[in-house]
Design goal:
Distance between the termini: 78 Å
Number of helices: 37
Cofactor: Mg(2+)
Radius of gyration: 37 Å
Number of strands: 37
Protein name: Phospholipid-transporting ATPase
EC number: 7.6.2.1
Keywords: ATP-binding, Lipid transport, Magnesium, Membrane, Metal-binding, Nucleotide-binding, Translocase, Transmembrane, Transmembrane helix, Transport
Enzyme class: translocase
Largest sheet: 9 strands, mixed
Shape: elongated
Length: about 1100
C-alpha cells in the first residue's frame, strides 16, 4: 500500500505525505492518487507500436508537401480520361520513398523501444507497507519513498530525506544529465536527516509545495510543510533522475516528479533549410506554363483538325467539346511533366547528408587520443552550411584554452608575488600537492613569518569554495571541484599551509600551518553568472563572524569600503579579488532572519535571495588578488590564422575582463602588432558608446573607435574590444555591427550568456551570413543555439554544450578540418549533385514537351511507361548518389594548404539562381537534341530489309537509349574524384539499363502479361540497326561536345583556384600545362606548393 499522496494546484505542484493511520478507513492511498492522474514513472520515448506504426507513420509522412503532391498526382492518374500513364509510374517511386522512410523510422523506434524497456525494468527499492520491497522503475509513483544504494541510478526526481552520511549528505554524479563527472554534494533538509530507518520514514507526514516540472537542471524551488513549520527546498535537496549515487552507502528519497515530468531529456536543435524553396516555386510555375501551352495547343488542334475525324475517332466521354478536351489535356501534361523534380530527389539528399555525417564521425584526424573522443555529427541537415560559414563566435575558457588552471601570481596588500625561482613545498608542508608549482619564495617566507594579511588571504582561499575533499590515505587529499579555477585556488592555499580537509553542512575543517581548525559554516552565498562572485559566512574558533568573498573585480571593487581606494588602484589588475568583512552577532542574526524569509518565499525566491546577498556583501576590506593561467590548446593559433585566410571572421565572446581578453587575443594571434589599431568600446551609456564609436581620440594602444571604421572602404587591419555593458545600448546596433564587421578581430569581454546569444542574433539580423558558435560549457548553450550551426567542445566543464550542439569534438583545432575539409566538400558535393540532378531530369522531361507538338497534343508519352518509372529510381540514381557522397575537387590536405578554396561557399557561387538556370538551359538543349536529331534521322531511314524505321516504338527506344548514354557520359565528365564505387555505379547502371530493357521487351513477359508489355521485341530489332547506333552516336556527340569545348575554354582562360591547385599538383596535367605554356608562352597555373600526386583514387573533371 502506498504511503504518500500528491495534490495538484493550478500554478504549483503540491505533494503531501500522510501516514496510514491518518487515512483511516477512507481507502487505499493508491486509489486516492489515481484520481489525480499523475504520470507513472514509465518512460516512453518511442512513437509507435505494432498497431499504430503504419497509420501514424503514413500520416506523418504525408505531412510533407512533396509526398502529398505526388499522392495528388497518383489520384489524377487513376482517372482514365486524364492520364495516359499507368498508375504504377507514380506509385512505385512514391511507395519506394515511403518504404525507405518507414524502414528508417521503424529501425529508430525499435532501438527506442529497446532502450525504454531497459530503463523501465531497472530494479528499485520502494518503501511499501512499512518494509522495503523491490519494484521496477516503471511501477514507481509520485509519493513513494525510495531507498538508493551506492552506485545506483536515481529512478525519479527525488527529495532527499536522509542518508548514511552525517547531516544527511550524499554525493552524486550527473554525467547522464550534463556530462560532468565531478561529484556534487546534496543535503537533506535538517528536520528529515534523522529519518534514517523505515519505521521513522513510514510515519513521516508532510506537505511539499513546489514549482511545476521544468527543464532546468540547476534550479528547484519548493517548500516542505511539516509539523506546522515551513522549510525551504532548493536544488541542493534534490536528486534528479539519471544521477548516480557515489561514495554514499545508502539514502532515502521521496518521489516528487516521475516519468515524463522528471529532469529533462536531452533536447536537440535542428534548423530547417529552405534551399529548395526557389526550385519548388519555379517548378510549379514551369509546370503550369507548359501545361497551359500544351492545353491551348490541344484546344486549337481539336477544333481545327480533330473535329474532322469525329466519325471514326470520337472524343472519349465525358469530353464533348475541344475546351473540355484541353482541360483534361492540361492535367494529363501536369502528370507527365512532373518529373522535372521527382520525389527521389528528397530521398537522395537525405542519403547524401547521412553519408557526409558518417565521414565526419569516421575522421581519425579529428579523434583525440588523450580523451578518447571522436568527432560527432549530431545532425545531418547542416553539413552544407559548414561550407558557407562567415562568422565564428567562440568562447574562451575551455574552448580556446585548456581549462586547466594554474595558480601563477598573486597580490596581497599591494605586494605582487610570482616572479622568482620555483619553490619546493615538501620540507614546509607534508600535505602539499607535489604537482603544484609556484615561482616566488618571498611569498612562502611571508607565510612562515606569520604575516596576518597573508594568512588571511590563504584562509579565504581555503574556506570560500564548494570543493569536495576525499582523503584516500593519510595525507593524500584529492579535491573534486565544479570548476578548474576553484580547484587551483584551493590547491594554492593547501600548499602554502592552509589545507582544506573536509566539510559538513555546518562546518569546514582545515589545517592551518599544521594546526587543525574547524569553522562553523553559517551561510554560503552561491556563485552564478549574474552575481559573478561567491561568499561564505563563517564563525572562527574565537567566535568572530566573518564574511569571505571572492569574484570578478568589477563586482568586488564597487563593494569595498572607501578606505581601500589606494590599495584598490594597485591591486585591480588581477583576478579574482578576495575580500572580507567582519560581522557582529546582531548584524548576523538580523541578516540571517532576512535570508530565512527570502528562502521561504513562495514566489520570486531567487530575486529576493539576491537582494539579501547584496545587503551583506558591502563595505568589505580588500585582501588581494590572484592571477590564474589557463594555457591555449594545441593548434589554436594555427587554426585561427587558417580560418582568417579563408575569410572567416572569428569573434571571441568571454566573461573575462578586458585585460584578460586582450591578452588572450594576442596569445592566439587574433590581435597582432601589425594591426593598424586596436580599439575599445567600454561606455556605460548611449552617449558614451556613441562618442567612442564616432569621435576620434588620440592614438594609444587601446583607444576609442573612430568614425571612419563605419565606412566599408577602409584600409588596414583593425581589432575591436567591446565590453558587455556597452552592448546593452540597443539603439547603437547598426553602428556596432558596421564597426565590428569592418575589423579583422573582435573580442567581446564581460559577457553574460544572454549577451553572447544577443551578439550572435545581432549578426544574423544585420548580415545575411552563416554563423557558427563554439563553446564548452553550460553558459555557452544559449550562444550555441542562437547560431545557425552549434559546435560543442567536450572538455573540463562536461558535455552540456556538446549535448546541445549540432557537432561536437574535443579540441578547437579540429574546427579547421570540420569547415575547410568536410564543410567545403559537403557544399561542393551537394551543389554538384543538385546541378546534375536538375540537368538530367529536364533533359528527360522536356522531350515530352517537344513531342506534344507532333502528337496532336494528346498527352502521349515519348518513352515506354516502364522506362519512365525506372529512370530516376534505377537507371540514374546510383551514379548521382556516388558523386554526391564521394566527389572531391582537391584532396583534404590541399584544402588546408589553400584556405581560399573555401570562399566559393561563402559567396554561394556553386549553386544559385544563375547556376540553376544554366543547368535548366543545358537540360533543355539536351532535350531538343534528343528529340529532333532522332526524329530527323529516323523519319527517312529504313531497315536493311527496306522497311521504314519511322515508327513510334523504334523512336522511343532510340531516344531512351541515347538519353541514358548522354547522362552517363555527362556524369563521367562531372565527376572530379574517381573511386571504384563511381566506376561500378556509372557503368553498372548503363549495363543495367540494357539488361532490364531487353527483359521488358522479351517474348516471355509478353506471353505472360500481353496487356502490359507492348514493346515486345522493339529493343532487339531497333538496336540491331546500324543507323540507330549512328543516330545515338551523333546525338551524344552533339550533346557533349559543346559542353567539353566550353569547359576546356573556361579552364584555359578563366580557371578557378581549385582548377589551378588540381593542375599544379597533378603530374600529367602539370606536364601538359607546362608544354602549353612553352608553346603559347602563357598559362594559368599559379600558386603551386610542392609536388606529388595524391595516391589511390583519381582526380579528374572539367
Amino acid at each position: 500500500m502506498r504511503q504518500f499522496e500528491r495534490r495538484a494546484k493550478t500554478q504549483e505542484t503540491t505533494l503531501f505525505c500522510l501516514c496510514l493511520e491518518a487515512i483511516g478507513l477512507k481507502g487505499c492511498p493508491f486509489k486516492y492518487n489515481e484520481k489525480f492522474q499523475y504520470a507513472s514513472n514509465c518512460i516512453t520515448t518511442s512513437k509507435y507500436n505494432a498497431v499504430t506504426f503504419l497509420p501514424v507513420n503514413l500520416f506523418e509522412q504525408f505531412q510533407e508537401v512533396a509526398n502529398t503532391y505526388f499522392l495528388f498526382l497518383l489520384i489524377l492518374q487513376l482517372i482514365p480520361q486524364i492520364s495516359s500513364l499507368s498508375w504504377f509510374t507514380t506509385i512505385v517511386p512514391l511507395a519506394l520513398v515511403l518504404s525507405i522512410t518507414a524502414i528508417k523510422d521503424a529501425t529508430d523506434d525499435y532501438f527506442r523501444h529497446k532502450s525504454d524497456n531497459q530503463v523501465n525494468n531497472r530494479q528499485s527499492q520502494v518503501l511499501i507497507s512499512g518494509s522495503i520491497q523491490k519494484e521496477k522503475w516503471m511501477n514507481v509513483r509520485v509519493g513513494d519513498i525510495i531507498k538508493l544504494e551506492n552506485n545506483q541510478f536515481v529512478a525519479a526526481d527525488l527529495l532527499l530525506l536522509s542518508s548514511s552520511e552525517p547531516h544527511g549528505l550524499c554525493y552524486i554524479e550527473t554525467a547522464e544529465l550534463d556530462g560532468e563527472t565531478n561529484m556534487k554534494v546534496r543535503q537533506s533538509v535538517s528536520v528529515t536527516c534523522e529519518l534514517g530507518d523505515t519505521n521513522n520514514l513510514a510515519t513521516f507526514n508532510g506537505e511539499v509545495v513546489c514549482e511545476p516540472p521544468n527543464n532546468k537542471l540547476d534550479r528547484f524551488c519548493g517548500t516542505l510543510h511539516w509539523k506546522e513549520k515551513k522549510y525551504p527546498l532548493t536544488n541542493q535537496n534534490m536528486l534528479l533522475r539519471g544521477c548516480v549515487l557515489r561514495n554514499t552507502e545508502f539514502c532515502y528519497g521521496l518521489v516528487i516528479f516521475a516519468g515524463q515530468f522528471t529532469s529533462p531529456t536531452r533536447f536537440y536543435r535542428s534548423i530547417e533549410l529552405y534551399i529548395y524553396c526557389f526550385v519548388v516555386i519555379f517548378r510549379f510555375l514551369l509546370l503550369v506554363v507548359m501545361g497551359v501551352i500544351l492545353a491551348v495547343g490541344n484546344a486549337v488542334w481539336e477544333r481545327e483538325v480533330g473535329s474532322l475525324f469525329q466519325s471514326y475517332l470520337p472524343w472519349d466521354p465525358p469530353v464533348d467539346n475541344f475546351i473540355f478536351s484541353a482541360f483534361f489535356s492540361f492535367w494529363s501534361y501536369v502528370i507527365i511533366l512532373n518529373t522535372v523534380v521527382p520525389i527521389s530527389l528528397y530521398v537522395s539528399v537525405e542519403v547524401i547528408r547521412l553519408g557526409h555525417s558518417y565521414f565526419i564521425n569516421w575522421d581519425r584526424q579529428m579523434f583525440c587520443s588523450q580523451c578518447n573522443t571522436a568527432a560527432e555529427a549530431r545532425t545531418t541537415t547542416l553539413n552544407e552550411e559548414l561550407g558557407q560559414v562567415e562568422y565564428i563566435f567562440s568562447d574562451k575558457t575551455g574552448t580556446l584554452t585548456q581549462n586547466i588552471m594554474t595558480f601563477n601570481k598573486c597580490s596581497i596588500n599591494g605586494q605582487a608575488y610570482g616572479k622568482c625561482s620555483k619553490l619546493d613545498f615538501a620540507p614546509f608542508n607534508s600535505l602539499a600537492d607535489p604537482n603544484f608549482c609556484f615561482y616566488d619564495d618571498t611569498l612562502l617566507e611571508s607565510v612562515k613569518v606569520g604575516d596576518s594579511l597573508t594568512h588571511e588571504f590563504f584562509r579565504l582561499l581555503s574556506l570560500c569554495h564548494t570543493v569536495m575533499s576525499e582523503e584516500k590515505s593519510e595525507g593524500e587529499l584529492v579535491y573534486k571541484a565544479q570548476s578548474p579555477d576553484e580547484a587551483a585556488l584551493v590547491t594554492a592555499a593547501r600548499n602554502f599551509g592552509f589545507t582544506f580537509r573536509s566539510r559538513t553542512p555546518g562546518t569546514i575543517s582545515t589545517t592551518e600551518m599544521g594546526r587543525p581548525v574547524t569553522y562553523s559554516l553559517l551561510a554560503i552565498l552561491d556563485f552564478n553568472n549574474i552575481r559573478k562572485r561567491m561568499s561564505v559566512i563563517v564563525r572562527n574558533p574565537e567566535g568572530r563572524i566573518r564574511l569571505y568573498c571572492k569574484g570578478a573585480d568589477t563586482m568586488l571593487l564597487e563593494r569595498l569600503h572607501p578606505c581601500n581606494q589606494d590599495l584598490m588602484n594597485i591591486t585591480r589588475a588581477a583576478y579574482p579579488g578576495p575580500g572580507l568583512s567582519d560581522l557582529s552577532d546582531e548584524e548576523w542574526e538580523s541578516w540571517a532572519e532576512n535570508q530565512r524569509s527570502a528562502e521561504r518565499a513562495p514566489t520570486c525566491r531567487e530575486e529576493r535571495l539576491a537582494a539579501v546577498y547584496e545587503d551583506i556583501e558591502q563595505d568589505m576590506m580588500l585582501l588581494g588578488a590572484t592571477a590564474i593561467e589557463d594555457k591555449l590548446q594545441e593548434g589554436v593559433q594555427e587554426t585561427i590564422a587558417l580560418l582568417s585566410l579563408a575569410n572567416i571572421k572569428v569573434w571571441v565572446l568571454t566573461g573575462d575582463k578586458q585585460e584578460t581578453a586582450v591578452n588572450i587575443g594576442y596569445s592566439c594571434k587574433m590581435l597582432t602588432d601589425d594591426m593598424s589599431e586596436v580599439f575599445v568600446i567600454s561606455g556605460n551609456t548611449v552617449q558614451c558608446v556613441r562618442q567612442e564609436l564616432r569621435s576620434p581620440q588620440p592614438k594609444s594602444p587601446v583607444s576609442p573607435a573612430p568614425q571612419f571604421l563605419l565606412l566599408d572602404n577602409i584600409s588596414g587591419e583593425f581589432g575591436l574590444v567591446v565590453t558587455g555593458h556597452s552592448l546593452v545600448q540597443a539603439d547603437m546596433e547598426v553602428e556596432f555591427v558596421s564597426t565590428a564587421c569592418a575589423c579583422k578581430a573582435v573580442i567581446c569581454c564581460r559577457m553574460t550568456p544572454l549577451q553572447k546569444a544577443q551578439v550572435v542574433e545581432l549578426i544574423k539580423k544585420h548580415k545575411k551570413a552563416v554563423t557558427l558558435a563554439v563553446g564548452d560549457g553550460a553558459n555557452d548553450i544559449s550562444m550555441i543555439k542562437s547560431a545557425h550551426i552549434g559546435v560543442g567542445i567536450s572538455g573540463q566543464e562536461g558535455s552540456q554544450a556538446a549535448l546541445a550542439s549540432d557537432y561536437s569534438f574535443s579540441q578547437f583545432r579540429f574546427l579547421q578540418r570540420l569547415l575547410l575539409v568536410h564543410g567545403r566538400w559537403s557544399y561542393l558535393r551537394m551543389c554538384r549533385f543538385l546541378c546534375y540532378f536538375f540537368y538530367k531530369n529536364f533533359a528527360f522531361t522536356m522531350v515530352h514537351f517537344w513531342f506534344g507538338f507532333f502528337c496532336g497534343f494528346s498527352a502521349q508519352t515519348v518513352y515506354d511507361q516502364y522506362f519512365i518509372t525506372l529512370y530516376n529510381i534505377v537507371y540514374t540514381s546510383l551514379p548521382v548518389l556516388a558523386m554526391g557522397i564521394f566527389d572531391q575537387d582537391v584532396p583534404d590536405h590541399r584544402s588546408l594548404e589553400y584556405p581560399k578554396l573555401y570562399e566559393p561557399g561563402q559567396l554561394n557561387l556553386l549553386f544559385n539562381k544563375k547556376e540553376f538556370f544554366i543547368c535548366i538551359a543545358q537540360g533543355i538543349y539536351t532535350s531538343v537534341v534528343l528529340f529532333f536529331v532522332p526524329y530527323v534521322v529516323l523519319s527517312d531511314a529504313t531497315q536493311s530489309t527496306g522497311e521504314p524505321l519511322a515508327d513510334y516504338q523504334t523512336f522511343a527506344v532510340t531516344t531512351a537509349t541515347t538519353l541514358v548514354i548522354v547522362v552517363s557520359v555527362q556524369i563521367a565528365l562531372d565527376t572530379g574524384y574517381w573511386t571504384v564505387i563511381n566506376h561500378a555505379f556509372i557503368w553498372g547502371s548503363l549495363g543495367l539499363y540494357f539488361s532490364i530493357m531487353f527483359a521488358l521487351h522479351s517474348q516471355t513477359l509478353f506471353r505472360i502479361f500481353p496487356n502490359h508489355f507492348h514493346f515486345v521485341g522493339s529493343s532487339q530489332s531497333t538496336l540491331l540497326q546500324p543507323v540507330v547506333w549512328l543516330t545515338i552516336t551523333l546525338t551524344t556527340a552533339i550533346c557533349v561536345v559543346p559542353v567539353l569545348t566550353f569547359r576546356f575554354l573556361k579552364l584555359d582562360l578563366r580557371p578557378q583556384l581549385s582548377d589551378t591547385v588540381r593542375i599544379a599538383h597533378c603530374p600529367i596535367a602539370h606536364a601538359m600545362s607546362s608544354y602549353r605554356r612553352r608553346t603559347n608562352r602563357g598559362g594559368a597555373v599559379t600558386g603551386s606548393r610542392g609536388t606529388g600526386a595524391p595516391q589511390g583514387n583519381t582526380y579528374t573533371g572539367f
